[in-house]
Amino acid sequence: MATKYLQRKIGALVIAIVIIVIVSVYVGEVTRYNQVLYGFEDGFIGNYKIQFNQPLGKRLPIINGEIVFNIPASGVLILSTSDPITALTSVETAQYKNGTKIAIWNSSEKSDSVRFRTPVVFADGTHKGFVGTDDDGKRIPFER
After folding, report:
1. Strand ranges inside the chain, DSSP E
2. What residues contact residue 32 under an 8 Å CB cut-off, 6+ apart?
3. Which of 3, 8, 125, 134 sees the fewest Cβ atoms within 10 Å?
4. What's the CA gap between 108 and 3, in Å, rounded?
């Protein structure tokens, strides 16, 4: 009887350890990347789109622990990898290739400065956003 009791306890302990390891790995993967950089061609103004899980897409670069979306001049980035952005991703920045920072849209920057609108995630997983001034936003309709 003691053996059966001991077997149950060991089995429960093994299951608990497996669950802890799985949860730890998952949390580590989710929280590993907390910085996201959106890079744009110099002078880019307009809508941008990021598509994931596309067979002919590029691999998403992760440089020094930072997710880097290099948006081409066309404004459309096609990636073969899945979407790494989670609710735990905390810091998003944007800049032009020449290193000029682009302010985040809801920042205190003046409305006539170029700003980066963080992407909206659509049902198909596509991310769409906008870079430009308030006037650019009125002139160029947001692509849905």
Report:
1. 35-40, 46-51, 62-63, 66-71, 76-78, 91-96, 101-104, 115-121, 127-132
2. 65
3. 3
4. 68
Alpha carbon distances (Å) from 137 to 7, 19, 82, 111, 121: 67, 48, 29, 10, 19
Q: Tokens at residue 62, please? A: 């992760």
- How does pLDDT run across 90-138, given as a tens digit for each residue? 688 899 999 999 988 776 666 678 888 888 888 888 889 999 988 888 8
10 Å Cβ neighbour count for 130? 22
Distance CA 69, CA 100 (A): 16
Query: Cα torsion for 109, 111, 125, 24, to the nearest 10°?
Result: 10
Backbone angles phi, psi at 134, to 5 degrees: -60, -40
Beta-ladder partners of 101: 95
What count of other Cβ atoms lies within 10 Å of the Cβ of residue 116?
Answer: 22
Which pTM does this prediction carry?
0.71
User: Could you tell me the two tokens for 36?
Assistant: 């996201």
